[in-house]
């Protein structure tokens, strides 16, 4: 049974940092593409970042590029999202997800990710 558990969310002031973690069980992250998505109240779920199994060429949404970094620790079977210079508009429920398909480029489409965590809340105050 695949399980993804996010942690690390919280309340932070604008300009601050948080590091989200997504611990996986029931699968080996080194074999799949990992993605981070977020959903703010009243808005659709949006792509944040993705990292292929090879950990090469991470992909970022324009809104977070230069501020967020996606990485993984294969030994811990965990993927991370380091978030710096946080802004109030980054406030959302953050989810990690797994895409089992080996694509040439990591997908930004939420519908193509098969497994999802329960989410962790990030709130950035101004």
How would you briefly describe this protein structure?
The chain is mainly beta and 126 residues long. The protein has no helices and 11 strands.
Index terms:
126 residues, mainly beta, seven-stranded mixed β-sheet, four-stranded antiparallel β-sheet
Structure commentary:
With 126 residues, the chain is mostly beta strands. It has no helices and eleven strands. Strands 2, 4, 5, 6, 9, 10 and 11 form a seven-stranded mixed beta sheet that branches. The chain starts with a strand and ends with a strand. The mean pLDDT is 95.
Task: Give the uncertain stretches in residue-range form.
Answer: none
Total strands: 11
Sheet having the most strands: 7 strands, mixed
Helix content: under 10%
Average pLDDT, rounded to a whole number, is: 95
How far apart the termini lie comes to 40 Å
Q: Which strand-content bin applies to the residues?
A: over 45%
In DSSP terms (H or I, runs of 4 or more residues), the helix count works out at 0
* Overall 3D shape: globular
What structural class do helix, strand and pairing data support?
A: mainly beta
Order of helices and strands: EEEEEEEEEEE
Rg to the nearest angstrom? 13 Å
């Amino acid at each position: 049974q695949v399980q993804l558990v996010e942690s690390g969310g919280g309340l932070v002031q604008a300009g601050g940092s948080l590091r989200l973690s997504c611990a996986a069980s029931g699968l080996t992250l080194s074999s799949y593409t990992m993605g981070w998505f977020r959903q703010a109240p009243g808005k659709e779920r949006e792509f944040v970042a993705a990292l292929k199994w090879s950990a090469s060429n991470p992909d970022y949404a324009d809104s977070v590029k230069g501020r967020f970094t996606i990485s993984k620790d294969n030994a811990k079977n965990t993927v991370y999202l380091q978030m710096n210079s946080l802004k109030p508009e980054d406030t959302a429920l953050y989810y990690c997800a797994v895409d089992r398909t080996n694509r040439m480029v990591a997908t930004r489409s939420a519908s193509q990710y098969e497994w999802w965590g329960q989410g962790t809340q990030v709130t950035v105050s101004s």
